[in-house]
Amino acid sequence: MKFKSYYWAIIVAAVIAVLAITLPMIVFRDSGETSNPHSSEDLNNMQNEPADYTPQIEAYQELLKANPNDALAMAGLGQLYLGIGRYADSADMYTKAVAANPKEPMFYVGLGEAEYALGMVDVALRDLQKGLEVDPNNQALLVDIGGVYAQTGKLQEAKQIWQKAYDIDPKSNLGHAAKQYIAELESSQTGQGTQTHP
Q1: pLDDT tens for each residue of 118-139
Q2: Is the dihedral of CA 139, 119, 127, 72 positive or negative?
Q3: Confidence of residue 51 (pLDDT cuts 50, 70, 90)
Q4: 3-state SS string over 42-56?
Q5: 3-state class of 120 per DSSP?
Q6: First vs last Cα of the chain: how many Å apart?
Q7: Which of 3, 105, 143, 177 is the least buried, fewest Cβ under 10 Å from its Cβ?
């Protein structure tokens, strides 16, 4: 049981790290704002040095060979695939994890993120909302749903759901992220309010 608790902590940390890194890029990639502390040369160098996740992938695959119903191993492999851009493989692993354990809301987070990355926006939103049925106060789900709403032009809905995420735990990393997204959304709306539209 200790192994599973430790294993679960790694998956949750990985999901939060991916959210913290990718969600600001997804939500505000068209805003024209650049808040990245790295120069474009730094980013090019980082992109040209791909990490080799083969040992981790093989480790998860071995766990799944030993126990094909291990939802945590499925989610761990799904998270790795998500991080390296293998979105279809990630969605497949998270779909299997959800089927094996539909009561775990973080599996819906990964599934929704993979589906969103594949351009399956409506499907991603549906699966993220299924996760909310399991845990209506899951900040990661709320932050992701807000991101989908923002990207699809439903700005008021995005603001409301991010506010709910913030209100659940303002001191958490996801609470801080939700507050930042609300501020950036309000800032972009204020700037747009002075522009004329055809």
Answers
A1: 999 999 999 999 999 999 999 9
A2: negative
A3: confident
A4: HHHHHHCCCCCCHHH
A5: coil
A6: 62
A7: 3
